[in-house]
Structures are given as structure tokens and as C-alpha cells.
Amino acid sequence: MSLHPEVIRLLIFLVGIIAFAALNAAYLVWLERKEAGHIQRRIGPKEVGPFGLLQPLADGIKLMTKQLIVPAGVDPILFKIAPILVMVPAIMSFVTIPYGENLVARNIDIGLLMIFAFASVNVLGLLLGAWGSRNKYAVISAARVVSQNVAYEIPMLITVVTLVMITGTMNLHEIVMQQQGGFWNWNILNLAASPLMPVAFLIFFVCMLAETNRAPFDMAEAESELIAGAFTEYPGMGFGVFFMGEYANIVIGASVATILFLGGWQCPFGLFPGVHWFLLKMYFLIFTVIWIRWTYPRTTFYSLLNLSWKILIPISFFNLILTSAMIKVF
Amino acid sequence: MGTQNIQPPIVQFAQLDKLLALGRANSLWPMTFGLACCAIEMMATGASRFDLARFGAEVFRPSPRQCDVMIVAGTISKKMAPAVETLYDQMPEPKWVIAMGNCAISGGPFLFEGQYGIVEGAEKLFPVDVFIPGCPPRPEALIEGILELEEKVTGSRRFPRVEVG
Lengths: 330, 165
Fold this sequence. Notes:
The complex is a heterodimer.
Chain A lengths: L4 H35 L15 H10 L11 H18 L17 H9 L1 H12 L3 H32 L4 H6 L19 H15 L24 H26 L13 H21 L5 H29 L1
Helix pairs in contact in A: 1-2, 1-9, 1-10, 2-9, 3-4, 3-5, 3-9, 5-6, 6-8, 6-11, 8-9, 9-10
Chain B lengths: L13 H12 L12 H9 L22 E5 L7 H10 L5 E5 L1 H5 L23 E3 L6 H16 L11
Parallel strand pairs in B: 1-2, 2-3
Helix pairs in contact in B: 1-5, 2-5
């Protein structure tokens, strides 16, 4: 009996995507701890393996062998399903992301729409986990997360709509192919379409930080006031899966930013395009995310919402109108 | 691993157990939890000069559900004792306790005849694995305490012991 080549291809991509997500989650934690150390003039993990490289392995072993407490009074179904609800959409979003010319599991025409559809399920996972764990701190955190994500999804989607108007397609592969040539062809510098394109990138990046609940917008896990926010009652691997989901979401956010604004796998000088350029740009963005986290303190909740409703949304609307006017005129 | 009340396994996997012990010893996440002045030394241990992160033990988790080791840093007053006990009970197994400083060991300078305010040592509340003397102990002493706990978990010491001649 021989398998259909399409089935084999799908299986390979499935395994590859899950392995990529898990490996990234593990080693981004290492990068985060190491980077935090160097920003604070410490060394960071160094004794567990060379340069502390075995640290994620030790953490993984420990988290997996930890007792799984299901506290009395929690909702048994929601409590267990919530970490999966954060992890699965993240994995699903990897399906349409093209990491190279041919390195994509499924090249869907509405790939961009699919990624944002799945990205919004992430909030539901956090909300259900917090609600199901029957903890007042978790519920407060969930309420914050929902209002934060609703507030930041609007400028993010308006920016994406602007971009779709310029490119005329939601197919991620085509969006990258349109940015061929050199860095002056990238969407971030596409000033002919809209002079506000760099600002649009900035808005997208800030919204990505807020959507993935990273500091300075980490309202989900507000350590100083809400214990551990939505994760308060999760021991061992329940918490571990939540964190893997968070890091997978960061990888997706950085990948989408790379595709939309930084030309995906295209080389800045028009030479040797390939997956290495994609990874370089993506990891630079992730490095910046971690850098911001360990440099700035957390904002208060009100200034967070004010930033979105009073600054980001008006600017992104203005950019939308400006872009449509320029498309009409020129 | 004295404080654990886990039943011994029916089938023994010596190598696997060693691997698990190694994993646990190298990622001891303490609880963000200080009672008195020893907590200041605990913070200094995490900061740049002493850097607890080298041993992978800098992840101070704010929720007891995600912690492995509870550093009782300071005086346990009788009013605080129920809260400390609750936090200990909320931690998932396997869990360890470090009593840091003289107050957590025995009551320290507050121990005198007729005192009514403090608990005379963390061991009155729950089993303790490592005692770190000092008032307060220096950050080096806390790091030594964590290394001692690692030795207790894995059975072998990370660094050669310093002999004072």
C-alpha cells in the first residue's frame, strides 16, 4: 500500500510545524532569560549545559513531572481545555505562513484572514481558563485581557486592511513576491502608496505586542498585583502549555510582520533570497520584543486603553483614508 | 527528598529517576515571597552581583502553583502563619522548603521567654529541607543553600566544597 504524496507532505509539515513551535518556545525562553540577564548586567543561565543551553530541557522535565493539581471547585472541562485552546490556534496559524519560496504547508488565498481569525481564539482560551479556574485574580485578569485585545485588534486590522488595499491580495506568498528586488521595495518603505507606511509598521508592531500580552502590555500576567493573572491556578504543564502558546503567538506575530512589511524571504539587496533572510528578520523582531519587555515597566491599564483608542486608532484610520485617496488619485 | 509524601514506585527506573532528579534540581523555581529583612538579601541574590540565574533558579513565580521551592525569608509572626501554611499547601509536589535566616530557623532575636507574637521556626509549620543561618544570611549563603538543596535532590554536589582550614 502506498500513501498519496499529498498525505506524506501534510504529515511532514504537521510534524515540522509542531517541532518548530515547540523548539522556538523552549529556546525563546532561554533567549529571554539570557537577554534579561545581560540587560540587567548579569550573566543569566550558565551552569546547566554550555551557556545554559540545557536549561529549557531541565525546565521541561521539571514541568512535565510536576503534580497536576486540579483545585476544588474549578470547572473540570474548561480548566483542562483552556491551555489547548491557546496552543492549537497558534499551531494552526503556522499552516499558511510561507517561510520560503516553497516552504509553506498550504498556500491559501485568504491566508492573512485565516491567521487573524485564529489569532482571536487565543483570547477565548485565556478567558475560559481564567473563568474555569474560579479565582478572583484570574477573572480580573481575564476581563483586562479581553478589553485589551478588543482595543488593539481594531488598529491592527485597520493597518492590515490598508495593506491589503495596497497589495490587492490576501495571499501571503503573493504579498512577499510583490516586495521583490531590494529593501526599497518593501512595504515598510512603500512611500508611494502611503507616506505613513513606517508609522503603519510601528502601529502593527505595538498592536502585536499587546495582542501577545507582552510587557509593557502584559495585563494577562500582572505579577505585581494579580499573582499570575489568568495562569494563577495552573500547575506544571498546564502553565507550560500556556507559555508555549504565548511564545508561538510571538513567533507568528513576528512572522506576519516580516511578511507584510519586511519583505518575507526577500534579500534587502536583491541577492540570494531564501529562508535564512526570513528567519533573520523574524528573530530580530522577536529579539526586539524581548528587549522592550526588559527595558520598560508595565503601563497602567487606563493608559494602555488610552493609547489604543486615542492615538493608534485615529492614526490608523487617517492612514487608511490617506492610502485610499492616494490609490484613487494616482 | 524528605518532605515529599509520594509513594515509592512499583517498578524502579534508576536512570530515568536520575534524569528527573537532574531536571528538577536544575530548575528550582522559588516563590516570590518575603516575610522580613531576609527578603532583601533574597532580592540581592537575584540581582546582578550574585545572579541566582546562573543555576536556573531565578524564575521567581508569583503563584504557589508554579513553584518548586519556598524560601521562608524572615520572621513568621503568628498572624502570618496561617497564610504561610496555606501557601505551602498550595504548592504542587515535589516541593522543598528553605528556611532562610535565624528567625525562620528558630525565631532568632525574637525568641525569649514569654514571647507571644512569633512562630519559633518554620519547622513548627511544615518540614524544612535546608536551613541557612545568618541574621540575615549573605546572598552567597543563600546560593550555597540552593546548591545544598540541589545536592539533596540529585545526590551529588555541583561544585567542590570549599574547605576552611
